[in-house]
Write the structure tokens for this entry.
Amino acid sequence: MRFSLLHTDTDTQARCGQIETAHGTIETPIFMPVGTVGTVKSVEPRDLRAEVQAEIILGNTYHLYLRPGTALLEQAGGLHPFMRWDGPILTDSGGYQVFSLEGLRKITEEGVRFQSHLDGSYHMFTPESVVDTQRSIGSDIMMVLDECPPSDVSEDYARTSNELTMRWAARCKQRFAETEGLYGHDQALFAIVQGVLFPDIRRESARRLVDMDFPGYAIGGLSVGEAAAQMYEMVAVCCEELPTHKPRYLMGVGTPANLLENIALGVDMFDCVMPTRNGRNGNIFTTQGILNIRNKKWHDDFSALDPGLDRYTAQTYSKAYLRHLFIAKEMLGPRLASLQNLAFYLWLMQEARTAIREGRFAAWKRSILPQISRRL
């Protein structure tokens, strides 16, 4: 994997770059559709390419480990051929999902013992095993195992937790160095900065991971209930410490406004379930604003779903038709809404990159945010 920094905005920390992987080049800043179990819900890989114009997707190690399992993935030749997606894939380590299993997991120095949410069976994730699992998946970018504590823990707990994350990161890096990919292509391992909402711990976490010399760095443990202002403060602290010549990935974020504010702070990569989850619930992002497609006001509105977005779904289907599909509980409704939302997110990233390259990102962000954030 190679990252090239191409442009930096003059008025903010926003930047444009390229990440070269074995499965293609990614233009940054970029949003990654979430394909938790080997599928971006209801969206075919060909639509991810042609309509959404996705350049990289995300898979989840925890879910893929449980189902379909590493044996089947290895038999298939990895996740790329199994799901018929030939572009880059990033996998998280599964740490966030495991630590979300309140009452169903136990943390030790060795790793995390947990119960499956599927059948209650017991499993163990260690720094070494999550690297091995991601080797089986064959993702282009892998993540270290980290502890992701909630936002309301004490400073002492946050510090102790971060120490464990540091030791686990070193073990992941060692395991990565001792093993090779299974499918003939290179993989990269990113570290994860933690520290909850404590700036000093965030700085220490970032500095120590930078000293370990990973090819890229994620910022974890945010967008888990804290205020947006707190998230931005922690992101700014992390970006001050992370190297400019390596990619920065903010995990699990977020709304369109969150994306633009964090791009301004220097973040390159994002993922979130919001576009597809909100789409399945009839909440649709457009270039004119956000609409609840179930509202009666769209009953006889035959205008295009999103006149400002040059994509098939946005231009072909009317608001009235989408509303009809949702009211009738037809599967096509959530599918089209998901396509629209993902296409909008990727369009927003394209527009951000253009604005950065042309030296007008700050002004563009000020003008676009009120437009895309309003409720229609």
